[in-house]
Amino acid sequence: MRSFAQKALAVAAAVSAVASLTACGGSSAATDSGGKKITIGIKFDQPGLGFKQGSSYTGFDVDVARYVAKDLGYSDSQIVWKEAPSKQREALLQNGDVDMVVATYSITDKRKQVVDFAGPYFVAGQDLLVRANEKSIKGPNSLNGKNLCSVTGSTSAQTVKDHFANKVQLMEQTGYAECVTALISGTVDAVTTDDIILAGLASAKGGGNLKLVGKPFTQERYGIGVKKGDTAMVKKINAALKKMEADGSWQKDLASATKGTGYKPNSKYNPPTDFDAQSSSTDF
Ligand code: GLU
């Protein structure tokens, strides 16, 4: 049998092993030994919203995330950016891999079962992106027999499945940039997701050969996702969003993020003033 001292030593060694594991776990959403950090999930491939180029991050979601983080006490250098593809957002929050998700993330009843939302901070609408010479696709009612592309785990793909399943073929990708490639090559006839995302991609990748149909058929209310039950965090984020709108940053950042794309936010819903985490809806 081991003496008390030996047991105590063994326990101490085990504790320190755990402690050093935690300290070295660079991807942890919690604070690390070098000062406090906040880990934020964004898109890396949506120009004008969440876009990574080398070590620089740009877009309206990035601006909103930076503003909120600053209000919570984190400087730019204390933010750890992590890619949050559509399908992985809930899991990233549930596993504690990120502290918040600011990634064109629509508030929905289904997602609210597993995560909480602050916001909305923006309201987009699902639309269609087609080739510039496309004549037959004029809106959601002219999709008979067409091939569409959207992203796995998005409300956009879900809306297609719920409302057009019997008349279209849906190809699902992990990101919208892949869908745009499929549209340019002729593999699909249209890409469908939020108008603001499509406008950014068309301008960055379309080379003048793509156009937005311009008949949005849903209201996508963008929220900031946090871990389920963190109501204190939701309150703090909503207070920051309110400030962002009141001091003009929201307007300035949105204008600069969408500059040159021709995109105009729907003024009926923007900027949102009730931070009530109300779910998104469709026009059907
Ligand atoms: N806003 C929609 C959603 O949250 C589509 C955009 C996206 O996939 O990020 O699913």
Please explain how this structure is put together.
The chain folds into 2 domains: 38-123 and 220-263, Periplasmic binding protein-like II (D-Maltodextrin-Binding Protein, domain 2, 3-Layer(aba) Sandwich); 126-218, Periplasmic binding protein-like II (D-Maltodextrin-Binding Protein, domain 2). The chain is built from 9 helices and 14 strands. The chain has helices spanning 4-24, 60-71, 89-94, 109-112, 155-163, 176-185, 195-205, 231-246, 249-258, and strands at residues 38-42, 45-46, 50-53, 56-58, 79-83, 100-101, 115-124, 126-131, 147-151, 169-173, 190-194, 210-212, 218-227, 281-282. The strands form 4 sheets. It has a 5-stranded mixed beta sheet with strand order 10-9-11-8-12, with helices on both faces. Strands 5-1-6 form a 3-stranded parallel beta sheet. Strands 2-3-4 form a 3-stranded antiparallel beta sheet. A hairpin with a 2-residue loop joins strand 3 and strand 4 (56-58). The radius of gyration is 21 Å and the shape is globular. The relative contact order is 0.18. Glutamic acid (GLU) binds at residues 86, 103-106, 151, 154-156, 193-194, 197, 220.
Which descriptors would you attach to this protein?
284 residues, D-Maltodextrin-Binding Protein, domain 2, 2 domains, 5-stranded mixed beta sheet, 9 helices, 14 strands, globular, disordered N terminus, binds glutamic acid
